[in-house]
Amino acid sequence: MSMIEFHDVEKYYGDFHALKKINLTIDKGEVVVIIGPSGSGKSTLLRTMNGLNTVSAGKLIVNNFDLADKKTDINKIRRDVGMVFQHFNLYANKTVLQNVTLAPQLVLKEDKAQSEKEAMALLDLVGLADKAHSYPSMLSGGQEQRVAIARSLAMKPKALLFDEPTSALDPEMIGDVLDVMKKVAADGMTMIVVTHEMGFAQEVANRLIFMADGEVLEDDDTKSFFAHP
Ligand code: ADP
Ligand code: ADP
């Protein structure tokens, strides 16, 4: 079952051709890592997958919705396809628990007790149940990023996009965040991850996409990718 399908997708920023004839199908349960030089279009590609970027031409189907169709509710796509950013943007004036329960309460209309129960289970998953009542300023960057992952999971997404989730972290924090991502992958989440962490790619991803100059140059299963000379 495919989760995301690109058919001859093009993206222009003004005159700049950022994505060139992209054809890709990502199935449910896949963990795909996207690599490539800075400026090659990785982030642009990722942001098209939940409608943060529009596409200029071609067809893009996400979770069976056509993103070019004006009738498609882009907010539903964004609920179904979560995104974890390099900078986590937690609400500074809310506790960790409140950061995780806010969207489920406002958007999914979950009641307080239910959303808190689910949030505590997610904070447990990311190893931060004991920080539920702390404020973000009391956390390390790595802990903040783990809260951001819990917050994304709280929306019960069908897929999660990660845009360089460890690039802003001190080296000693990176492992804990990657471990959480590994757990999320093991639970069967469809994940598309832009990262320079090749160890994570080799260990967790089933597939690797290499971009350069707005094009997908390689799209391989992880084993054969790492077998290249
Ligand atoms: P990567 O994630 O691989 O570093 P990006 O997708 O961020 O690449 O960017 C690809 C190219 O598109 C870069 O040359 C960048 O400057 C340009 N670009 C990205 N976003 C925009 C935008 N909103 N408007 C104009 N150009 C952009
Ligand atoms: P859409 O995908 O809805 O067409 P864009 O992503 O093209 O929207 O627009 C995002 C904003 O980022 C634009 O206002 C654009 O001008 C601005 N921007 C311009 N150049 C860059 C760049 N090199 N990198 C990132 N953002 C840029």
From TrEMBL:
Residues 4-229 form the ABC transporter domain. It comes from the Bacteria. It comes from Loigolactobacillus binensis. GO terms for molecular function: ATP binding. SMART domains: AAA. Belongs to the ABC transporter superfamily. The keyword NADP does not apply. PANTHER family: AMINO ACID IMPORT ATP-BINDING PROTEIN (PTHR43166), PHOSPHONATES IMPORT ATP-BINDING PROTEIN PHNC (PTHR43166:SF4). It holds the Pfam family ABC_tran. This is Amino acid ABC transporter ATP-binding protein. Keywords: ATP-binding, Nucleotide-binding, Transport. The keyword Transport applies. CDD domains: ABC_HisP_GlnQ.
